[in-house]
Structure formats: C-alpha cells, structure tokens
Amino acid sequence: MGKPAEKKRFYSEGLHFECTGCGACCKLGGGFVYPSLEDVGFSARHLELSVNAFTETYMELHKGQYVFKNDGDNCIFYGQNGCNIYEARPTQCRTFPFWKDNLKSHYRWKIIEEECEGIGKGKLFSYNEIEAIKNQSSQTPSGPEPSSIPQTDSDPV
Ligand code: SF4
Ligand code: SF4
User: Fold this and answer.
1) Is 33 in the pocket of ligand 2 (CB under 6 A)?
2) Is residue 42 a part of any domain in this protein?
3) CA–CA distance, 83 with 98 (Å, rounded to integer)
4) Å from CA of 125 to ligand 1 middle
5) What's the rounded mean pLDDT across residues 54-71?
6) Among the four residues 69, 71, 76, 93, which has the most C-beta atoms within 10 Å?
7) Looking at residue 63, what is its pLDDT?
C-alpha cells in the first residue's frame, strides 16, 4: 500500500504577494517585534552600532522577552517612509505574511488578507517557496498574532 495522500493545502498552487510598504504589518499585534539574536546583530551592524548600544537604544523587555521599542502602536523603526531598517529588518518582518499561523487555513489567510494589501498582488510564490519562508518564520521566538484572529484549534477551511 502506498502512503496516504497528503491533504492538499490551499496554497498548493502558490500565492501572489508583493509588499507595497504600506506598514500595516508594523502595527499588527500592537507593533511588537521579537528579533532573534542573529536579527539583532544584523540590524545593529546595519546601523553601525554595537549590539550593546543597539539593545540599549532600541530594545526593551516586554513580558520577559526583548522586543523593539514601540510607541504603543508602531514599531520604533517605522518612519514616514516606512521601515528605517528595511534591508536589515528581522526575520519576523521579512517572512510576513507567510507565517505558520497565517497559513494554517484559508480562513486565516483571508483574515490576514484584510490587513495586508500586498496579498494577491505581484509575484506568484510557489508552494515550495512559501514552505521555505514559513519554515524560516517558525524559527523566530514568537511573532505576534494579529489580535483580530480568533484563537481556535479548528478553523473553518
Ligand atoms: S502589510 Fe503587507 S503590503 Fe503592507 S508593509 Fe506589511 S507586508 Fe507589505
Ligand atoms: S522592523 Fe521595520 S518592518 Fe519590522 S515592524 Fe519595525 S518598522 Fe516594520
């Protein structure tokens, strides 16, 4: 007997996405960004700062985890022209919207589509490309969940 057929994912034919730089995702979940140590080093080098100087200037503790400071709405790096460290933004930001939880079901993807105007535009990301980005994103300690997404284990598909 062969292997049971894998359940077809809603993005098996790929998904279109192109970031417009609108910045809406910089506010999701209160604008909290949880960078990994590698991310911090990358962003610090980009700003020509030591990791210590970067941490003291741009980071703070939130519920026991280091996050980028924010003004209660936006991440500190969000400026008039979008992200001020765009080339060195952390994994959480680089992998949005292809986060594991956003791809959990078509239902969740449709909700995130309401937040992100780049979804459905531009480049067609293949299933394999999406999976690669998704697996990268799951390595971030804890990307925030958009608060608008109900927390259930059994979403409609
Ligand atoms: S919400 Fe979507 S389109 Fe807007 S900046 Fe974020 S990823 Fe880009
Ligand atoms: S680091 Fe840049 S892309 Fe990430 S939330 Fe902050 S402003 Fe947005």
Assistant:
1) yes
2) yes
3) 19
4) 16
5) 91
6) 93
7) 83
Tell whether 154 is covered by a domain.
Answer: no
Confirm or reject: Cβ of 77 under 6 Å from ligand 2: yes
Mean pLDDT of all residues in 32-40? 91
Does the CB atom of residue 96 touch ligand 2 within 6 A?
no
Number of structural domains found in the chain: 1
Residue 6 maps to a domain: no
What does the H/E/C string look like for the chain? CCCCCCCCCCCCCCEEECCCCCCHHHCHHHCCCCCCHHHHHHHHHHCCCCHHHHHHHHEEEECCEEEECECCCCECCEECCEECCHHHCCHHHHCCCCCCCCCCCHHHHHHHHHHCCCEEEEEEECHHHHHHHHHHHCCCCCCCCCCCCCCCCCCCC
CA dist., res. 47 & res. 32, Å (int): 20
Cα 110–chain centre separation: 16
Q: What is the pLDDT of residue 9?
A: 92
Give the sign of the dihedral formed by CA 101, CA 66, CA 33, CA 145: positive
Ligand closest to 77 (CA) is: 2
Structural domain boundaries, residue 86 = 15-137
Gap between the Cα atoms of 105 and 122, Å rounded: 22
Let me know if residue 146 belongs to a domain: no
